[in-house]
Design goal:
6 strands, alpha+beta, about 15% helix, 6-stranded antiparallel sheet, about 100 residues
Length: about 100
């Protein structure tokens, strides 16, 4: 479900800016895994893959690894690599603070 929300959000962003065109859009959704990639002509890109992980007998978690990049108003390209799993969302990027 989260995958669908992210994908719909990316399409909404593309529709909100008619000067931005999608140059790559691929996705595969299977019962226990998925992957997708979206790229626009303004330098925005988002790729992710995920799978269902059995945590214990009663619980499962969706594990997602991905990255996205965008060109900010300052003209620089920012890239974020992330993992989202049973431990939460962990993002890494050169512009993000390190703990």
């Amino acid at each position: 479900m989260k995958f669908v929300i992210v994908l719909v959000t990316l399409f909404a962003i593309g529709l909100a800016r008619p000067d931005v065109q999608t140059v790559r859009n691929d996705a595969e959704v299977l019962p226990e895994s998925f992957h997708f990639g979206v790229e626009t002509n303004d330098g925005t890109r988002h790729d992710a893959e995920g799978h269902l992980k059995v945590v214990d007998k009663e619980n499962a978690a969706l594990v997602v690894k991905g990255s996205y990049q965008f060109v900010a108003k300052d003209g620089l390209t920012y890239t974020v690599e992330y993992t989202a799993d049973e431990n939460g969302y962990q993002a890494q990027g050169a512009h993000l603070p390190h703990t």
